[in-house]
Amino acid sequence: MSSKISIPLDIPDVRVLNVKTNKAGDYIITVESTLKHAYCRQCGQKITKFHGHDDWITLRHLPILGRQVYIRLRPKRYQCPDCSDKPTSTQQLSWREASSPSTKAYEAHILLQLVNSTVQDISRKERLGYDAVVGIVDRHIARQVDWDQFHQLEVLGLDEIALKKGHRDYVTIVSARLAGGRLTVLAVLPDREKATVKQFLRSIPQHLRQTIDTVCTDLYAGYINAVKEVLPAANVVADRYHVAKAYRGGADTLRRQELKRLKKELPEEEYDTLKGAMWPFRKKPSKLTQEEQELLDRVFAHSPALKQAHTFREELTDIFEQDLSKAQATREIKAWQKRVTDSKLTCFDSFLTTLDRHLDEITNYFLDRHSSGFVEGLNNKIKVLKRRCFGILNLDHLFQRLFLDLEGYRLFA
Predict the structure, then answer these.
(1) Long-range pairs for 379-383 at CB < 8 Å and ≥24 separation?
(2) Can you name the residues that pair with 216 across neighbouring β-strands?
(3) DSSP-assigned letter for residue 179
(4) What is the reported pLDDT for 169?
(5) How far apart are CA 230 and CA 172, in angstroms?
(6) DSSP letter string over 299-312?
(7) Cα 214 to the chain's mean position, in Å?
C-alpha cells in the first residue's frame, strides 16, 4: 500500500474535483469555483444570473515535491439583467489575473526566485519560456517609479555608471535611502546631463520634493547644480569618498613622480631599499607595521616634499574624522588650504580648485555626516547584475531588475 499525504491547496473559493498526473509526472488539479456571482463588465454591478462556462483553461501553479503543478478550471459566466444588451461577464477570481497563464502565487514564486538571479536561469530551472518569465516581470514590476508608494524621501543619491566597458554609455542612477535605512531605486536616466537630471527632479511630486532633506552626490557640477536649481531647500552633500579620492590622488601622483625621480638619481642598490612603498604610503599611519614605517622613513628621507604631502593628506583626513560642526569644519579646512598653498606644493592644486568651487557641499558632510555609501553599495550591486546578465542595455529592464533585487524579498518572500 503506497503512502499518501494531504497538502492544502491554499487557493480560495474553489473546490477540488480531482487530481491526476500526466506522462511527465506533473500534477493536474481540476477545480471549480464555489463563488455564485460575478461583476458586470459594463456597469460593474454584482450579478448572480448564471449563464454557462468558458472553455477549459490550465494554469501553472506552485510546485509540489519537485513536480510541476497545473490548475485546470472552467471559468463561470454570468449575465447582467440590468444592462440593455444583457451582456455576459466571466467570473474573476482573486488568485489569478485574467490575462495570465499562471496563478498569482506561482508568479510571486518566480519573482522571488529571480532576485539576484537571471531570467535565463529561472527559465531553465522552472522549465518556463524566457518570454514567459519576462512577462511575469512586466505584469508585476513597473518600468518607472510609482510615487504613490512613498510618503517621504529624505535622502537622495545621484551617481553614474557605464553600461559598457571602457566607461561608455553613462546613465544616472537615482536612489533614495528611506526611513529605517531601506534603499530603493527611483530612476535610471539615459545620460548624466544636467538637463536630464533636472527634468527628473521636477517630475517628483511637490509634496515629496518637500520631504527631501539631503542629496548625496560626487563632485560633478552637473548633478550639484541640477539639485540646487530644483531642490533649493535640500542640502547637497559632496560624498566624502569622492572628496578623499581627490586629495589622496594628489598625494599619490607626487609619490609616483618622486619615486620615478629617485630611480634615476639613486644607485640601483639604494633604490631597491625603497621598493614596495605604495601600500604603506596609502595606509593609515596607525595601521603601519614597524617594517612599513621604516620603509616610509627611508623614502621620506630622500623626498621631504613627499613627507610633507603625506602629512597634509593625513591632516585633512583627521579633520573629517573629528566631530565638528559645519562652521568649525569650514575654518579647519580653510586653514589647511592656506598651509598647503604656503608650502608651494603643487600636487594638491586640482583639489584646492575643487575646494574653492565646492567647499559648501564638502562641508555639508558635517551637518549629519551623510555620505554616498548607500549609492556606492548600489553601484556594486549594479555591477554584479550587469555581469550576471551579461549586460543590460535596456534601461526599463535595468530599472525593473534593480527594483526586484532591492525590494524582491520584502514584496514576495
Answers:
(1) 379/159, 379/161, 379/173, 381/405, 381/406, 382/161, 382/173, 383/161
(2) 157, 237
(3) G
(4) 80
(5) 17
(6) HHHH-HHHHHHHHH
(7) 18
C-beta separation of 144 from 203 below 8 A: no
Phi–psi pair at 49, nearest 5 degrees: -80, 105
Q: In the block, which residue shows the cell 598647503?
A: 340
| Most distant CA pair in the chain, distance | 104
DSSP H or E segment with residue 40: none
Residue 237, classed as helix, strand or coil, is strand
* CA atoms of 303 and 173, how far apart (whole Å): 43
Whether the Cβ atoms of residue 319 and residue 362 lie closer than 8 Å to each other:
no
Q: 171 by DSSP, 3-state: which?
A: strand
Assess contact for 316 and 333: CB atoms under 8 A: yes
Q: Which residues of 27-63 are buried (b: 16+ CB within 10 A; e: fewer)?
A: bebbbbbeeeebbbeeeeeebeeebeeeeeeebbbbe
* CB within 8 Å of 291: residues ≥ 6 apart: none
- Using an 8 Å Cβ cutoff, are 158 and 147 in contact? no
Contact criterion met (CB below 8 Å) for 140 and 111: yes
Give Cα separations from 90 to 31, 36, 392 (angstroms): 16, 12, 39
SS3 355: helix
Q: Rounded to an integer, what distance in angstroms lies between the CA atom of residue 83 and that of residue 309?
A: 85
Residues in the chain: 413
Alpha-helical runs (H) found in 1-155: 104-114, 119-126, 130-140
Count of CB atoms within 10 A of residue 320's CB? 17
Q: At CA 387, angle to CA 384 and CA 390, rounded to 5?
A: 145
* Tens place of pLDDT per residue across the chain (413 aa): 467 888 888 999 999 999 999 999 999 999 999 999 999 999 999 999 999 999 999 999 999 988 999 999 999 999 999 999 999 999 999 999 988 999 999 999 999 999 999 999 999 999 999 999 999 999 999 999 999 999 999 999 998 888 876 666 888 999 999 888 888 999 999 999 999 999 999 999 999 999 999 999 999 999 999 999 999 999 999 989 899 999 999 999 999 999 999 999 999 999 999 999 999 999 999 999 999 999 999 999 999 999 999 999 999 999 999 999 999 999 999 999 999 999 989 999 999 999 999 999 999 999 989 877 777 777 777 777 777 766 677 889 989 999 999 899 999 98
Q: Are 114 and 70 in contact (CB under 8 A)?
A: no
